[in-house]
Amino acid sequence: MVQIPTRALTLEEFLQQPETEPASEYINGQVIQKPMPQGKHSTIQGELVNAINAVTKPQKTALAFPELRCTFGGRSIVPDVAVFTWGRIPLDASGEIANTFDTHPDWTIEILSPDQSQTRVTGNILHCLNHGTQLGWLIDPAERSVLVYPPGQQPELLQDPQDLLLTPNWIADLHLTIEDLFGWLKLGI
């Protein structure tokens, strides 16, 4: 079979395309569809969004968004969890949360799916850090580990059940360990 090369889309053309399910991302001129989240991924994502928002929303310090498209620095990515500090949340003309986020999250969290490229996901975290994101996490359910990416520093691998996960300084009240994070996967039967 002969494959006919197709013309690459520009970022602007990509953004005019209909959304896909699961989401597609625009990275280095390529359109790449994310894998469909599975049980462990979805559980960790949902619990993490709830845990972050339980601490940040009442104090109006930040909001965590699941699967939010963020377009900046020539890419359009969809982190599993994008956290924005309160004053950086884009608003529309009526003062409501905007539909379009043309900026980097303050904290980006990715949860590795079984068939997902760790290199591609790490590339998205590094892209965020290079454009102003204050912290990145790469959660690996299969390894029961989290790679924490502070900007300008070497990543730290956390895998001991009692390891406390580093959070941005504006969310000091969130205290999660590796055990807490992966404990969400048990139903407590």
Strand percentage: 15-25%
Low-confidence stretches: 1-5
| Number of DSSP strand runs | 10
Amount of helix: 10-25%
- Radius of gyration from the CA trace? 17 Å
Biggest sheet descriptor = 6 strands, mixed
Please report the distance between the alpha carbons of the first and last residues. Answer: 52 Å
Describe the structure.
The chain has 189 residues and is α+β, with helices and mostly antiparallel strands. It contains four helices and ten strands, in the order αββαβββββαβββα. It starts with 10 loop residues before the first helix and ends in a 6-residue tail after the last helix. Mean pLDDT is 93; it is low at 1-5.
Structural features:
single chain, 189 residues, alpha+beta, 4 helices, 10 strands, 23% helix, globular
Question: What's the structural blueprint in terms of helices and strands?
Answer:
Elements: H1 11-16, E1 24-27, E2 30-33, H2 39-56, E3 62-66, E4 70-72, E5 75-77, E6 81-85, E7 107-111, H3 118-130, E8 135-140, E9 145-149, E10 156-158, H4 178-183
Parallel strand pairs: 7-8
Antiparallel strand pairs: 1-2, 3-6, 4-5, 6-7, 8-9, 9-10
